[in-house]
Amino acid sequence: MAWTVETAKDAETTFALGLLDAVRERGFAVANAIMDKGYDNGPVHDGCNARGVCPVTPLRETPGVKRGDHKPRCCEHGEWTFAGTDYKRQATKWRCPTGECQPKSTWVKADRMHPLIPRHTERSKALYSSRGAVEREFGRLKHEWAMLPLRVRGIERVRLHADLTILAKLACALTNARAAPRAA
Ligand SMILES: [Zn+2]
């Protein structure tokens, strides 16, 4: 749906938000952005949230994480529990485990430490494991669609090769989709 070809010396994370915008401009609704650990940084999380997209990444061991900034609040009754997400408000709700604190719940604004889909939830884990689908697609592009080994040199030629390959693959996917009987 959107791709970019860059040299290995460019940091992948700088292209994530631009690709998200490209996908959205092409008319696709993007609910979640599932990314590996390398994308776990503040600007990527904030950029996703600003676009109404939930970022799903593992947690990178940064100084803030070592300090425990990502952990739920604790009170004398124990660790506060996750009580839902308000996507409009861009915040998660957390409750005192016994409800004895006043107030008994609090909103936590979404950021890298506190994503809208908290990392400990089954939902976050299931979404993250679905990332394998794109890795399999990369494998098919490399091994069945001639993206590897590359027979051209220079970023412009490699870009053209990747564009043509992916366009051909999308054309096949479109043909298959049109040939498939529509679900009643
Ligand atoms: Zn409490």
What does this molecule look like?
The protein is an alpha+beta fold. The chain is about 40% helix and about 15% strand. The chain has helices spanning about 15-25, 40-50, 65, 120-130, 130-145, 155-180; strands spanning about 30-35, 55, 75, 80, 80-85, 90-95, 105-110. The mean pLDDT is about 95. Zinc ion (ZN) binds near residues 96 and 98.
Rounded to an integer, what's the Rg over CA atoms? 21 Å
What is the percentage of strand-forming residues?
5-15%
* Mean pLDDT reading: 95
Q: Structural class of the helices, strands and pairings?
A: alpha+beta
Report the principal-axis shape.
elongated
Share of residues in helices: 25-40%
Along the chain, the helix and strand elements come as: HEHEHEEEEEHHH
What profile does the largest beta sheet have?
Answer: 3 strands, antiparallel
How many helical elements?
6
Would you summarize the structure shown here?
This protein has about 180 residues and is of the alpha+beta class. Helix content is about 40%, strand content about 15%. Zinc ion binds near residues 75, 98 and 101.
Defining traits:
alpha+beta; three-stranded antiparallel β-sheet; 14% strand; 184 residues; binds zinc ion; 7 strands; two-stranded parallel sheet
Topology, please?
Blueprint: H1 16-25, E1 32-34, H2 42-50, E2 54-56, H3 63-67, E3 74-75, E4 78-79, E5 81-86, E6 91-95, E7 105-109, H4 122-129, H5 132-143, H6 155-179
Parallel strand pairs: 1-2
Antiparallel strand pairs: 3-4, 5-6, 6-7
Zinc ion (ZN) is lined by residues 75, 77, 96, 98, 100-101.
